[in-house]
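Aim 2 progress update. The chain analyzed this quarter is reproduced below.
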Amino acid sequence: MLLEEVRKGEDVRKQEIKEKLDELTQEQERIATTRDKAYLDKLNGVIEEERWASLDNEWGERLNLIVEKANELREALKSSGAEELDSTLELLKRARELFSQQDPFEQAEGLKILVSNLTITGRKLDPDYRSPFDLVALGTKTGNWYPRQDSNLWPTV
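Predicted structure tokens:
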């Protein structure tokens, strides 16, 4: 069920990324067209050299930002949250086995990553998990793997 929800969200995320890429491409084309027209105005003496240089610099900086953002979005399209979640859940299934195979120092280091605090209640240890492990613990405990942020199950930060 969790993987299904992630895959649905993945489709929505990828569509939003594609729309943002389209917007950036359109903005890049608008800037290039405006830049070309302004260059012709410079050559024809309509605008002064200093003004042209200033505008050209602004457009160049904006184009660099657009290219950088577009590259980030293309990389985000390549990644898959579902694949990452699948491998993470597989690792979590083996966590007990892997933990028992480690020496005490490695076990302590692993616990520092997972847990922010441990409370002793009688003969029981109650862990306060670090994010995102708190959500895994919550999902395991409640069976609700996709809590809404406004629900009382959502961990408070």
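Helices lie at 2-43, 49-78, 81-93, 95-100, 104-114, 133-142. The longest strand covers residues 115-121. These observations will guide the mutagenesis experiments scheduled for the next reporting period.
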